Amino acid sequence: MTRKSGTGTSKSWLCAMVTSALLLQMPAAVLAEETDNQETFSLDAMVITANRVPTEAAKTAANVTVVSQEQIENGPYANLGDVLRDINGVAVTTKGFAGAGQTVYLNGDDRVLVMIDGRRLSRPQGTASGGRASIELNSIVSLDNIERIEIVKGGASALYGSDAVGGVINIITRKGTEAKTTVDFSAGSWGIRNYGLSTQGSENGFSWYITANKKEQDYAEYNVLNPALTAGSSKGDNRRWPNSRYEGEGFTMRLDKTIDDNRSLTFNFEHWNDEGGRPISVLKPDGPFDQLTSLSNNWALTYDFNKQKAVPGFARIYANYANQGFYGTYKSRVQGFAYQTGWQLDDKQKLVAGVDWERGEVLENRFQDEYQEAGNYSNKSVTNTAIYLQDIFALNDKWTMTPGIRYDHHSKFGGQTTPKVNVNYSADSTTDIYFSYNRVFKAPTLDDLYYDLYYPFYGSTAKGDPNLKPEKGHVISAGVNKKLNEKTSVTANYFTSELTNAIDWDYDDFMNSQVCNIAKQKKRGFELDLKHKLSDRYYTELGYSYVNIKENRDNAGYLVDPKNSQPNGYRVKVGYTDAKWDVNVNGQSASGLDRDYFVDSNYWVWNLAANYKMTPDASVYFNVYNLGDKAYELTSSGSSNRGNYPMTSRHFVMGVKYSF
């Protein structure tokens, strides 16, 4: 049975009217109450990631966005990809169903470093989704332990080394404070059931924050994009994804021990595990081995010192373990050590210095289909050792210059030196203008180097190349952060980047592929953000981004990348907040998509979140995803199978939280 979707235009207007009604018709008694003012406007926020030391966001000389705990809790977010997709200039691609790989793009680049509390999460073999990403966002199951997320767009190899070409995403976890336990239960469409528990406390200098959660979904539904791929359907028809069940569970723990005012110890542990069906695509919805399991166990021990000084320091040891099962077994482990210190030389100059060491190894990378084992590789590893130095120097009250340099020694590729220079000009108390130049590099993954697959049943092959060269280049950014008044802020950013020896997997025919240094890549674009408080209770955010990606394969001339999923991006958020209510709707759009690779050249998708605090300890919430029931896609499946990866249709989740 199918259900026909209506037109996109009428649904967009319907969404707008529903949202307006929710926002404007709050009870008069509630309107009279004092607002909590929960929305955070990031220009005043202190961030760590951009300069490795606490710095006001507007003065980091970088394109920085901060997502607060309140924004995450009050938004219509089921996972980390949902949170990031709501940010202007960020693209997150996925094949639609729960558990599908999610890849984040900053400045149009998937070479993005993802961290937790400054600790790298990159997997040494890369991701099953391909591309240049080193982690799939869906491996991070829960959001309950997040204090805030710092997103830095633009090259950051001078501070963080490989992977930080498009930028850095740093997830800052929550530290236990008051004695409190919170239970969270929600249910919704398609048998969705979510169970959450968090407990925190602090006593005699020791604090803890622990979370546990479980997610279940019986199946998913999508709206048909390309009727040629789904027999007996029309565009917009609603269909059930076969083989789309999902189960995920997570457990996180953060323990903190205060030694004195300047020193502390922190232990972090994260366990995430998910499993479920993997429909692959509309053309291939199920099969005997189309099941996916993904396990992550990570831990870190950090010693913080000089906490009260202008340049804090730390020493950290950590390990990440991952085990993914899909047509075989893929196990990897990362072990690392990081040390950072610094000095306040005078009232105008700070020096930051550090050492990083990391060893990544693939323990087992074995492909096996239902008929026979088809080979691959195991017991391969790479080691990287790095030192870095950064000088934050205030030339006067208006000018700040931040030069830096990092040297990485890779066990496979030898030495890589990446300098940077950032300049910030504070024109007045409300205006900051910045410029940054960063050299960047991305080392090949172990899959790039050693992948060796022969699939006898189909006669297909896929081979890595141990002689690959690292991807190298530069990123230039310039921008302005401006507070127009106490209620309105505007940010604008322009970037351009260029890479040589770009890596890709090239197919000589449909069944055989070989990795190689095939291209030069150029990217350029800009972003414009406007945040405005309409009143103490109403707020709005508007954003536009433009990204142009070109490749020069084998010196044959530059061509525009037709797989760019967001050439023009648009973000709209309108919300209402007070002591009882937080209601917001967000709209996400892209235009300029290549019709040879995507069914439609543009789309609009709207999501709704409504939260009501019944008592200081109890609240209820209601989220609707894809309000207009739009048929759209975020991932291109090539010119021959457009619409093969549709996103899920309209669905809802409602739940209750109680603290004691």
TrEMBL record:
**Signal peptide positions (record):** 1-32
**What region holds the TonB-dependent receptor plug domain?**
58-168
Identify the keywords attached in UniProt to this record, alphabetized: Cell outer membrane, Membrane, Receptor, Signal, TonB box, Transmembrane, Transmembrane beta strand, Transport
In terms of one coarse class, where is the protein primarily found? Answer: membrane
Protein name in the entry? Vitamin B12 transporter BtuB
Q: Upper lineage ranks?
A: Bacteria, Bacillati, Bacillota, Negativicutes, Selenomonadales
- Tell me how this protein sits in the membrane: Multi-pass membrane protein
What positions does the domain TonB-dependent receptor-like beta-barrel occupy? 223-627
Family to which the UniProt record says this protein belongs: Belongs to the TonB-dependent receptor family.
Q: Please state where this protein is localized.
A: Cell outer membrane
